[in-house]
Write a structure and sequence with these properties.
The structure is a single chain. By secondary structure, this protein is of the alpha/beta class. It has one domain. Helices cover 39% and strands 9% of the residues. It is built from eight helices and six strands. The strands form two sheets. A four-stranded mixed beta sheet has the order 1-2-3-6. Helix 3 links the parallel strand 1 and strand 2. The longest helix is centred in the middle third of the chain and has 24 residues. It is globular. The two termini are 22 Å apart. It comes from Dioscorea zingiberensis.
Length: 269
């Protein structure tokens, strides 16, 4: 599966992400690589490095590496296919996430950056479902808020089990909600419609080479029906790196990068 014959190239960094992926394997099944399989791929990389360098050197390296995790957004609209109740659905997401996080922790990960989900119900592609009002879909926002809250609690609980675990949780819901509801405070003019696309809110037909786009994308919170603009992304990244609680906690990404992993966990082989 590797596109290199030299596993040492992995020491420069590896991206296991897959567009449209979710925590649940049923989310966009067949169209993406779900989280479970992404972690299986990490396991293969880990084993390849151990074969090349030995367990103790890999363990030391992995424990000081930062694992960036941004997952859950695609599972929220998928709730419409699993209408089991908001609380029950969030519990399903968190219990599945817990198993996957423990998978990477058992393979040495000790520094995590976790991105909470945004107010998904306010994305242009979701708002456009409400043709008349363009209002946010409250149920999706409720799931997103609860998921982020429970994910933050899960990380705190995992720290009790893995005492040398350090993490930075970015409350993307809290921060992005400000961009949507108070756009001018952050330099935006439009927080409802997408910059690029067609139809109502530029969100009925996706952005494509034939679609019109706004004259100044820096003034839009959303680039297209599903994605934030570069300007909004830049603000989020700066907040994640240098922000303060309650937006990012218990440390920000810059502080996390400066922490040393102590008492590296011995991994069973």
């Amino acid at each position: 599966m590797f596109k290199t014959d030299n596993p040492l190239e992995f020491l420069e960094g590896v991206n296991f992400a897959s567009g449209s992926a979710g925590i649940l394997t049923s989310t966009h099944q067949g169209l993406c690589i779900p989280l479970e399989t992404q972690i299986d791929f990490y396991s293969l990389v880990f084993k390849a490095l151990v074969e090349k360098l030995g367990i103790f050197q890999v363990q030391r390296f992995i424990s000081s590496s930062i694992f960036y995790i941004n997952i859950g957004s695609n599972d929220i609209p998928a709730y419409s296919y699993h209408p089991i109740g908001v609380s029950k659905y969030v519990r399903l997401l968190i219990s599945t996430l817990e198993g996957e996080l423990k998978g990477i922790l058992k393979l040495g990960a000790r520094k995590l950056v976790f991105m909470g989900t945004q107010p998904i119900g306010c994305w242009p592609g979701i708002r456009a479902i409400n043709n008349r009002s363009g209002d946010c879909i409250r149920e999706y926002n409720q799931i997103s808020y609860m998921y982020s809250e429970r994910a933050a609690l899960l990380l705190k609980e995992l720290q009790l089990e893995y005492a040398d675990l350090s993490y930075s949780f970015f409350d993307s819901y809290r921060v992005f909600d400000q961009y949507i509801n108070h756009p001018k405070t952050y330099g935006f003019d439009e927080s409802k419609a997408a910059c690029c696309g067609m139809g109502y809110l530029n969100a009925k037909i996706r952005c494509n080479p034939s679609a019109p786009y706004c004259s100044d994308r820096t003034k839009y919170v959303f680039w297209d029906m599903w994605h934030q603009s570069e300007a909004a992304a830049n603000l989020l990244v700066r907040m994640a790196f240098d922000g303060l609680p309650p937006n990012v906690f218990p440390v920000n990404v810059r502080e996390l990068s400066g922490l040393n992993a102590e008492n590296a966990h011995v991994i069973d082989q």
